[in-house]
Design brief:
- The complex is a heterodimer of chains A (417) and B (134).
- Helices cover 40% and strands 18% of the residues of chain A.
- With 417 residues, chain A is α/β, with parallel strands linked by helices.
- Chain A folds into two domains: 172 residues, 3-Layer(aba) Sandwich (Rossmann fold); 166 residues, Dimethylsulfoxide Reductase, domain 2.
- In chain A, strands 4-3-16-15-14-5-6-12-13 form a nine-stranded mixed β-sheet, with helices on both faces. In chain A, strands 9-8-7-10-11 form a five-stranded parallel β-sheet. In chain A, strands 1-2 form a two-stranded antiparallel ribbon.
- The two termini of chain A are 40 Å apart.
- The model of chain A has no long low-confidence stretch (mean pLDDT 95).
- By secondary structure, chain B is of the alpha/beta class.
- Chain B has a single domain, classed as Barwin-like endoglucanases (Beta Barrel), CATH 2.40.40.20.
- Chain B has a six-stranded mixed β-sheet with strand order 2-4-3-6-1-5.
- Classes of the chains: A alpha/beta (417), B alpha/beta (134).
- The structure holds iron/sulfur cluster (SF4).
- Iron/sulfur cluster binds next to helix 1 of chain A.
Chain lengths: 417, 134
């Protein structure tokens, strides 16, 4: 995109067509972004203050204290990263290595398994530009982009004209949703495109589709209308370029990814299908890529302080490490685990020495021993991020700030270690 | 003094399904400590029949309990076309996350999307504030 366009860090779609007007280092007007993007880019109403032990402090003192907490800890945790630039994430990985820390992000309890399978080339994927230009059948499974990624349908998957889809949604595209409830996206797909399944019925519905695609009678224990499954199988079979947007609804329902692998294998033997993970935070996928490059794992890592070697497994996940009380201090960046983790786990996190780095005041900050404000990524500082489809996107700084960027804060903590 | 006063409000076991809402999410971006965020987050959407069973009215508060944790949120009639008795909807928020068990069977993944709760009329109690959840 040209110089006049900026990238929105509101979600992992990273829309790169945003025009803004600024005044006094604030964005005053925005064009093309959705309401979530506007809210993110205009900035929060309660910015984070710099504090040590909940008392106002200067940046130098809080950085020093943060470094002291990490140095004193035997098994610190470094968590967050989804709203950090790739440059900041790389420094966070360095800090984890240096301090023998656990390092993890929210993918640990959401899109992780899918991103791992994509990076290990177990699932066929494509870019969002391919979706816009070629996709004729798009399935959102356990995903509601109308709410989670508001411009997905208008920029890529349904409404736009694309190179090979000149007739857009009216004639050239079919939208399907599979969900346990009629979401706003399901409303757009209409009754013929909406497949309502019972809670935890996803794996069975996938198996039934595989049967349908194999010309067998598709049976489900919940007696889903066989004719409807066969019709859907037929639509999928006829797709020239199919896409499945995998949402949290599907991921939380599957105990293992096998049914999805089996469905994708079948689809690709009779048709042409791709997976795109519906990643939420703007650079969660970037963290997965960066940690994968460094360690061969996308998340749930613990570094050995002596050898610098990475160990990986469920026991190193943020939830298990906190639950087992294996962690004795934590640095949280660009995330609010006190509002997103189950309460018993969050309570333990609030009890240990805690550092919070964020542009905005959040629940984690209310219990943190050190809080350090950073610039708002994509607005007050630039950097690189990885879009939900794996494409790297450059974020430009739009306004000036005297706050340090997330990368600068982490670099200064690293230096103070 | 009515006799009903001595009867405990009926309890209802429900499955909660969480979802995302762009309006609530945008309010979060502005500030999670604003009234607006609480208004759009601290709600539970119920089937009209479940509202009747709880002997409450649309807009009244209910206590939602799960294990040792509980929050008070506002009950709303979901307005969904299809009946969904036994299933209630909560938007993903600190109020819903407060009710999620840390029982992961060692997988590292809590059950964020659907879980069991017990709901009961809160008889005029106020909604739990975000800072009181913790
Ligand atoms: S869809 Fe996502 S990236 Fe695009 S404008 Fe909205 S919040 Fe920003």
């Amino acid at each position: 995109m040209t110089d006049n366009y900026y990238v929105c860090p509101g979600c992992a779609l990273l829309c790169d067509d945003i025009e803004v007007e600024t005044e006094d280092n604030k964005i005053t007007k925005m064009y093309t972004a959705c309401m979530k993007g506007v809210a993110r880019m205009k900035g929060c109403s309660s910015p984070l203050e710099c504090t040590v032990e909940q008392e106002a402090a200067d940046v130098d003192a809080s950085i020093e204290k943060a470094a002291a907490i990490l140095k004193d800890a035997k098994n610190p945790l470094i968590f967050g990263h989804g709203n950090s630039s790739s440059e900041a994430q790389k420094v966070a990985i360095e800090i984890a290595k240096r301090t023998g820390a656990y390092i993890d992000d929210t993918s640990s309890f959401c899109q992780g398994p899918i991103i791992e399978a994509i990076l290990q080339e177990k699932l066929k994927t494509c870019t969002l530009d391919d979706v816009r230009d070629k996709a004729d059948v798009t399935v959102f499974w356990g995903a509601d982009p109308a709410n989670s990624h508001p411009r997905h349908l208008s920029r890529y998957s349904y409404f736009p004209r694309g190179k090979e889809r000149q007739r857009g949604w009216e004639e050239d595209r079919t939208l399907i949703t599979v969900d346990i409830r009629k979401s706003d996206t399901s409303e757009i797909a209409g009754n013929s495109g909406f497949f309502q399944i019972p809670i935890k019925g996803d794996a069975e519905f996938m198996n039934a589709l595989v049967d349908g695609l194999s010309s067998k009678v598709p049976k489900t224990s919940f007696n889903f209308d066989k004719k409807k499954i066969l019709e859907l199988s037929n639509t999928l079979k006829k797709a020239k370029f199919g896409v499945i947007g995998v949402g949290l609804g599907l991921l939380y329902s599957l105990e293992e990814l096998e049914p999805l692998f089996a469905l994708m294998d079948k689809l690709n033997s009779v048709s042409n299908f791709h997976i795109i993970p519906m990643v939420g935070q703007y650079n969660m996928r970037g963290f997965n890529h960066n940690l994968f490059e460094e360690t061969g794992y996308i998340n749930r890592v613990k570094f050995d302080i002596e050898s610098g070697q990475a160990k990986h497994g469920a026991e190193y996940s943020v939830v298990e490490a906190l639950k087992e009380r294996s962690v004795d201090a934590a640095l949280v960046i660009g995330s609010d685990p006190l509002s997103s983790l189950p309460l018993p786990v969050a309570r333990y996190l609030a009890d240990i020495p805690l550092i919070d780095i964020d542009p905005c005041q959040n629940l984690t900050a209310t219990k943190a021993n050190v809080t350090i404000p950073c610039a708002l990524g994509g607005v007050e500082s630039g950097g690189t991020a990885v879009r939900m489809d794996g494409v790297e996107i450059e974020l430009k700084q739009i306004v000036e700030t005297d706050k340090l960027s997330d990368k600068e804060v982490l670099t200064r903590i690293m230096e103070a270690l | 003094m009515g006799f009903g006063q001595f009867l405990a409000a009926p309890e209802l076991k429900l499955t909660i399904v969480t979802y995302r809402d762009i309006f609530q999410n945008s309010a979060l971006e502005v500030s999670r400590f604003d009234e607006k965020y609480e208004e759009l987050s601290a709600i539970i959407k119920l089937d009209p029949n479940d509202i009747s069973k709880l002997v409450i009215k649309d807009g009244e508060t209910v206590t939602v309990k799960s294990g040792a944790e509980k929050v008070v949120v506002k009950a709303q009639i979901s307005g969904y076309e299809e009946k969904h008795e036994g299933v209630a909807y909560m938007v993903n928020s600190p109020w819903s996350n407060a009710l999620i068990s840390d029982n992961t069977h060692g997988t590292g993944v809590p059950s964020f999307k659907n879980f069991e709760v017990v709901v009961q009329s809160a008889k005029g109690e106020k909604v739990t504030g975000i800072k009181e959840i913790f």
